[in-house]
Design brief:
The complex is a heterodimer of chains A (355) and B (300).
Chain A: H1 16-37, H2 41-50, H3 56-81, H4 89-106, H5 112-141, H6 145-165, H7 199-215, H8 218-228, H9 230-235, H10 242-267, H11 278-288, H12 296-316, H13 324-335, H14 341-346
Helix pairs in contact in A: 1-2, 1-13, 2-12, 3-7, 3-10, 3-11, 3-12, 4-5, 4-6, 4-10, 4-11, 5-6, 5-10, 7-8, 11-12, 11-13
Chain B: H1 2-24, H2 32-50, H3 53-77, H4 82-105, E1 111-112, H5 131-137, H6 142-159, H7 162-172, H8 174-179, H9 184-210, E2 212-213, H10 221-231, H11 236-260, H12 264-268, H13 270-299
Antiparallel strand pairs in B: 1-2
Helix pairs in contact in B: 1-6, 1-9, 1-10, 1-11, 2-3, 2-4, 2-9, 2-10, 3-4, 3-9, 6-7, 7-9, 10-11, 10-13, 11-13
Classes of the chains: A mainly alpha (355), B mainly alpha (300).
Chain lengths: 355, 300
């Protein structure tokens, strides 16, 4: 990597059979863990599969989670599509959420529209900045954006937590949280008492927009070609330098947007660790959706369902640990693996050159 | 301070030396973090169960190796994207250890093992008369000397054996190697397995020294090791120096914490911040050097 600064990675891709296999494997592992880990397997399984549909509250929260995942997933795929990796999504979402909350708390008297727009702009800007610099360093000096984006994010997360539980903490609350933002900044709830809000509609509009930009504009075409084959793109006269920093910045911006909606729409405050894990889930969503803006919509819904199910299973039984990381791990192992049986058996053993 | 730096450096050095094999074979092993975590957990469990630190270290190495085998099965055998599967390894370690811990001990938090023997210190009382050399060389945990021993070992293995030559060739000129009849895939798998074993040792070194297992005990050392490989110019001696530098900065930061009253939470991010600054500086300097060389080649 340090030897070849200009090189980019092939975007991680999944084919349909792999996607199905990965999802089934994740489902199977979840079921096995619930059966063997829970004191009451039947209840846990029932909660996992039916919990998200059991009432308006769970159902709405699931859809709300899908909206945030959709936006962040689009962000992940914006980088993947250009052959760059943004592994800092978790930190970008978290700090953007805090920034959105701080903007709203700093301007409690501002008109609703101005406050919301300012919060969104600030959150997107901070996300763009954090991911964009990684792209810029890659462009200038060949610094591996995969590592820098992860490290910057990992360095930031504890500081954001510190600000939330320290200087910005709401002393009246038992939760480790900032003050709640003013009523008029909160996005309209669509399915009370759940957290579902206007952000989902926004996310659903964003996906076709991303599709249009990626597949029906010159820049989108250039970005896709650069991601597929940098040398070919350069030979074809595409200014490939632009497609290192720009996709990273877009990716960070979308992560920032999702962090802002987590505050304006879902939680109305920045809570310690409230978005942690969303960045990694978004990578899984982008891969399930094969980095295609429109396919990311069902991918986000499927993943949100599994997440909500896991949460319900934990609430309903004494099953007290996070299934999330394990579900992600299974999906990450399987989703780009070439497990389609004919290929596995027809290929001569140990002779594949691609690694 | 120097003494501490050497102790802090050790797991980074162990993991980075192993990671160097993968790196030279052309694999950027971003799974080091998860491999360390697995080694730390398995190492202290086996160490406490058997009452033997050697068994603990071996178990750590075995756990790292096994997880690396899973990693290579998906990334190399099934040709899955190596970065995505690397993340999977990290997530699997971070996600399954609390599960196993809850299942075995009823808690996913701190695990204490009072019966675990203490890691012996070697060359205690030996002195050269110079304080700085003493704290650099003598009286350290046994794992420190293990890590030092592996530096010349890696050097010989990589640069003085046919195995090392082929392994490096796989990373540098894969096509020519395949034409020469070398099984590039096998070398790459072995390289990743070596990095897994070394990272497992690094993990066991961390947990056995502390005598407790804490959640997220690896604390970013896998990523630091990854960066140390580059800062060390992908060479064992360079990696030794880079790891020592990281050790120094971390022990300095630990000392500064008391003086400057930096909140503990913020400090958790510090190793990552130091690492990313080091990495960016390194690549910027390197890029400038390359540009100057190209200029000289072109004009003189």
């Amino acid at each position: 990597m340090a030897e070849k600064p200009a090189a980019s990675r092939a975007p991680p891709r999944a084919q349909t059979p792999e996607t199905v296999v990965a999802l089934l494997a994740a489902l199977l592992v979840t079921v096995l863990l619930l059966v063997f880990g829970s004191p009451n397997p039947a209840r846990a399984l029932r909660a996992f599969f039916l919990g998200p549909f059991s009432n308006r509250y769970y159902f709405g929260n699931m859809l709300d989670g899908a909206g945030l995942l959709l936006i962040a997933g689009l962000g992940v795929s914006a980088a993947f599509r250009a052959g760059v990796f943004n592994l800092g999504g978790d930190g970008q979402i978290y700090i953007a959420g805090l920034v959105a909350a701080v903007v709203c708390l700093a301007l409690p008297q501002a008109p609703a529209l101005i406050g919301i727009v300012l919060a969104l702009v600030a959150a997107v800007a901070v996300g763009m900045l954090l991911a964009g610099v990684c792209g810029l360093f890659k462009y200038l000096w060949g610094t591996d954006e995969l590592i820098t984006s992860f490290l910057i994010s990992a360095a930031i997360v504890p500081s954001v937590s510190y600000l939330i539980v320290g200087p910005l903490r709401n002393q009246q609350s038992n939760l480790l949280t900032t003050e709640r933002i003013a009523e008029h900044f909160r996005l309209l709830r669509l399915l009370p008492p759940s957290n579902l809000n206007l952000a989902l509609l926004f996310a659903l509009l964003l996906a076709p927009l991303a599709y249009f930009l990626l597949y029906h504009t010159v820049r989108g075409y250039e970005l896709r070609i650069t991601g597929l084959n940098r040398e070919f793109a350069r030979y074809g006269g595409i200014a490939i330098g632009a497609y290192t920093a720009m996709p990273m910045a877009i990716s960070g911006g979308l992560h920032g947007l999702s962090g802002a909606f987590a505050v304006l729409g879902t939680h109305h405050a920045a809570i310690q660790g409230f978005t942690i894990g969303l960045g990694w889930n978004a990578i899984a969503v982008a891969l399930i959706g094969r980095n295609h803006p429109l396919l990311i919509i069902p991918a986000a819904l499927i993943f949100a369902y599994m997440e909500a199910g896991a949460k319900a299973a934990m609430l309903h039984t004494e099953f007290s640990f996070e299934l999330g990381a394990i579900i992600q791990a299974v999906i990450f192992f399987m989703i780009t693996a070439q497990v389609a049986l004919p290929r596995l058996w027809l290929r001569p053993r140990g002779r594949s050159t691609a690694a | 301070m120097i003494f501490n730096a050497v102790e802090i450096m050790t797991p980074i050095l162990l993991a980075a030396l192993g990671g160097l094999f993968a790196e030279l074979a052309g694999v950027l092993n971003i799974a080091l973090e998860g491999l360390i975590l697995a080694g730390a957990f398995a190492g202290i469990l086996a160490g406490a169960a058997s009452g033997s630190l050697v068994v603990g270290m071996l178990a750590g190495a075995l756990a790292g190796g096994l997880l690396a085998a899973v990693f290579t099965f998906f990334s190399i055998r099934l040709r899955a994207n190596i970065f995505i599967t690397g993340l999977a390894v990290n997530l699997l370690a971070a996600g399954s250890i609390p599960f196993i811990s809850t299942w075995m001990f009823g808690t996913k938090g701190v695990l204490r093992f009072p019966d675990l023997p203490r890691l012996p210190r070697l060359l205690e009382g030996v002195t050269s008369g110079v304080g700085f050399i003493d704290s650099l060389l003598f009286g350290h945990s046994a794992t420190v000397y293990l890590a030092w021993l592996l530096v010349p070992l890696a050097l010989v293995a990589l640069y003085r054996t046919p195995f090392g030559l082929r392994l490096r060739a796989v990373g540098a000129r894969e096509d020519s190697v395949i034409i020469a009849g070398v099984d590039a895939v096998a070398y790459r798998r072995i390289a990743v397995l070596i990095s897994g074993v070394a990272a497992g040792l690094a993990g066991a070194a961390i947990s056995l020294r502390l005598g407790v297992y804490l959640p997220n005990i690896s604390a970013g050392r896998g990523w630091i090791a990854l960066v140390a490989i580059y800062l060390g110019y992908r060479h064992p001696i360079g990696i030794l120096i880079a790891a020592l530098l990281f050790g120094f900065t971390e022990s300095l930061a630990g000392a500064a914490q008391g003086l400057l009253a930096i909140p503990g939470t913020v400090l958790l991010g510090l190793p990552y911040a130091i690492t990313v600054v080091a990495m960016i500086t390194y690549s910027a300097l390197r890029a400038r050097g390359q540009r100057r060389r190209r200029f000289m080649d072109a004009h003189f």
